[in-house]
Amino acid sequence: MATLPTSEDELIARFGPHPMYEPAGGFARRPAAERLVKTHCCFCGVQCGIQLKVADGHVIGFEPWEEFPVNRGKLCSKGVARYLQNDHPDRLLHPLRRTESGFRRASWDEALGLVVERIRSIQQRHGRDAFAVLGGASLTNEKAYLLGKLARIALRTANIDYNGRLCMVSAAAANKMAFGVDRAANPWSDIPLAKCVMLVGTNVGECFPILTDYVWRARDTGAKVVVVDPRLTPIARTADLFLPVKPGRDSALFAGILADLVRRGAIDREFIHAHTVGFEAVREAVAKYTPLHTEALTGVPAASIVRAAELWAEAPTSMLLHARGLEHHTKGVENVLSTINLVLATGRIGKPGCGYGTITGQGNGQGGREHGQRCNQLPGGRDIENPAHRAEVARFWGVTETELPRAGLSAVEIFDAIERGEIKGLLSLSINPMVSLPDAAKTRRALERLEFFGAIDFFLSETARHADVVLAGSLQEEDEGTITTGEGRVVRLRRSVEPPGDARVDWRILVELAARLGFADKFRYTCAEDLFRELCAASSGGPIDYGGMSYEKIEKNLGVFWPCPKPEHPGTPRLFEGGRFAHADGRARFHVVDYRPPAEDVDRDYPLFLTTGRVVSQYLSGNQTRRIGPLLDQAPEPYVEIHPQLAEALGIAAGQMVRLATRRGELRLPALLTRAIRPDTVFVPYHWAGRLSVNRITHRALDPISKIPEFKVCAVRVEAS
Ligand code: SF4
Questions:
Q1: 289 lines ligand 1 (CB under 6 A)
Q2: What percentage of the chain exceeds 90 in pLDDT?
Q3: What burial letters (b/e) apply to 666-698, b meaning 16+ CB within 10 Å?
Q4: What is the pLDDT of residue 141?
Q5: Which of 715, 79, 564, 683 shows the shortest CA–CA distance to 324?
Q6: Closest alpha carbon to 598 in 586, 588, 610
Q7: pLDDT tens digits for 437-462?
Q8: Which of 95, 178, 266, 578 has the smallest count of CB within 10 Å of its CB?
Q9: Can you spell out the DSSP letters for 590-629?
Q10: Quick check: 30 pLDDT over 70?
Q11: Given phi > 0 = left and psi -120 to 50 = alpha, else beta, which region is 430?
């Protein structure tokens, strides 16, 4: 998979010096490598092990880290290029302050003083909740914990949320509802043990390339691979069965598959009886989803629906994995629950090669949602509205329970409240909503309404450009910490280099803000490990228990899976063994899911589905990967995928510019004609900003439970331009 250069010499030999990725000072002046630092790739939730090559205070290359068990030295195209971000000329080197004529350099004292003064001023005039905080889902666990504590203790605002709200929260909510706890049930090493692997709305080959190897290892030992997606993604091309579901119809499809399993008697009555609650209601609810009825709803041929049920039923072991294609919907939680119903009804969980999981795309998609930077959550995965949980955390932080804010607004709702004038101030940490939120014009209007906006970031993202103060923070390789990968394994990040210039490590910026707000006594940390110790202690006894972890233990074991409640506990790679779930009665819950259409379905004026997603060479909003020359060269601009039949009907030729119009606005992109997409659907990748941003035209409707926006389906009109 490593198609990109692995050293600067090779980079120059193949590409020549390039202003986009030539480090400051030029390649020629670089000394030989002084040391290798074992750490992790920052560009997805797999967190592959990598050794960064460091010389003279710069990351200059990498070596494989073959002992790390998840990737055994392998890396995808993003992984082999990740070292190039460290010395980029766009790196923020000092704080910036907005003036009439643009940004000017500011001292840390001035910048931090201004942030604190504006927080106080806005909260005094408009109330504590008028100042909001937003964090990223690539932050270390330490930073996620600290940001939540800063918001609740030093700002005492209810309105803190995070970028995972745009990503995995539907799975998180469904996991808690069904299993009582939110984590992938199995380690990735269970995938090759499965005899049927069902991949739902997950473009594994491009979004989590290293996991493709796990699926192929399963296939090599006889597993059947079933892929559900509106697009024939790279993994779908090698599948045994491909179910090209119409966007927004997943829950109907899974009701249809489950109904067929019930009809053929291929459910595990013993498991259902001993370990679950609610199956009979689900059985009755799915009965109407005959193959023909399901075909009519989903566009998937009835024979394929029956074949999917057959393949699942025939296999002695099976894994079901999904990602944003299932979750980015106004019924994202229902979609996920419909897949969990299938897993539970067949008893395929809690055993080797049997299980279920969501694949996290963001660097710390799992850990970022565990430690209290969500609007409804306290550390240790505790529920902010649960009186017992509130009391535990209040006691731990040394405040009264009434001093802890209640549940606040989610990320999209925070922007809506800003636009309405209810929230006046915002502090953000490594989040780029100008690119990542749907309906970007609304996001821009909201940012322009803010009285004050302070952004902590390492590059001047499209969002940070709207800030009054930008605090130069840290890249992953400039700090210590931990990340919890998509399989629930807590891994160690090691500092490779110091932040350049006058930039600072993020958590030190947050600690300084807390001190200036008068809370130095509650934020006494001298290193990231202090933060981790406190995080672990705070989680102890909670639903997400890190109580027995330490940096030393994580390093020694190449990662520790939670729950790990005591120092002598080895961690828990596979959850729910023996059919014991995390609800108080130990039983998993079935949930009745009846299909309902997306918030904006196709009609006469907007007759096609628009769906969005990723490409292999870009990461999230592109704030990092669009700055890495070889990655940008692979995917310099977005395009719209159109089926040749549709293109012919619309008079569109390959490469021609087309106009995409939704009720939010318009976008012009070149046409990429491909048979890998349904003829009633067009696809646009989302990593670009401004006039190239597909999120200018996506829909802001939210799932009522998870509050995730419906990125994966809206109605669009497509015309030659
Ligand atoms: Fe990095 Fe993910 Fe690729 Fe691994 S699979 S190298 S973590 S982007």
A1: no
A2: 89
A3: ebebebbbbebbbbbbbbbbbbbbeebbbbbbb
A4: 97
A5: 683
A6: 610
A7: 999 999 999 999 999 999 999 999 99
A8: 578
A9: ---------SS---SSS-EEEEEE--TT--TTSTTGGGSH
A10: no
A11: left
* Rounded Cα gap, residues 123 and 578, in angstroms: 51
Predicted confidence (pLDDT) at residue 226 exceeds the cutoff of 60: yes
Residues contacting residue 355 through CB under 8 Å, at least 6 positions apart: 184, 185, 186, 190, 319, 320, 343, 348, 349, 574
pLDDT digits (tens, 9 = 90+) for 103-162: 999 999 999 999 999 999 999 999 999 999 999 989 999 999 999 999 999 999 999 999
Distance CA 256, CA 356 (A): 19
Separation between Cα atoms, residue 516 and residue 499, nearest integer Å: 22
Distance separating alpha carbons of residues 546 and 540, to the nearest angstrom:
6
Type of residue at 639: Y
3-state secondary structure of 289: coil
The reply to whether ligand 1 has any atom less than 6 angstroms from the CB of 271 is no
Nearest atom (ligand 1) to Cα of 40: 7
The atom number, within ligand 1, closest to the CA of 79 reads 6
Which residue ranges form the domains of the chain, and what is each CATH number?
8-85 (3.30.200.210), 96-167+364-568 (3.40.50.740), 169-358 (3.40.228.10), 608-720 (2.40.40.20)
Give the C-alpha separation, 433 to 440, whole Å.
8
Q: How confident is the model at residue 360 (pLDDT cuts 50, 70, 90)?
A: confident
Query: Residue 657 has which token pair?
Result: 């510019």
Radius of gyration of the chain (CA): 24
Amino acid at 144: A
The finding on whether 43 has its CB within 6 A of some atom of ligand 1 is yes
CB-ligand 1 contact for 75 (6 Å cutoff)? yes
Q: Whose CA is nearest to atom 4 of ligand 1?
A: 48
Q: Does the global pTM surpass 0.90?
A: yes
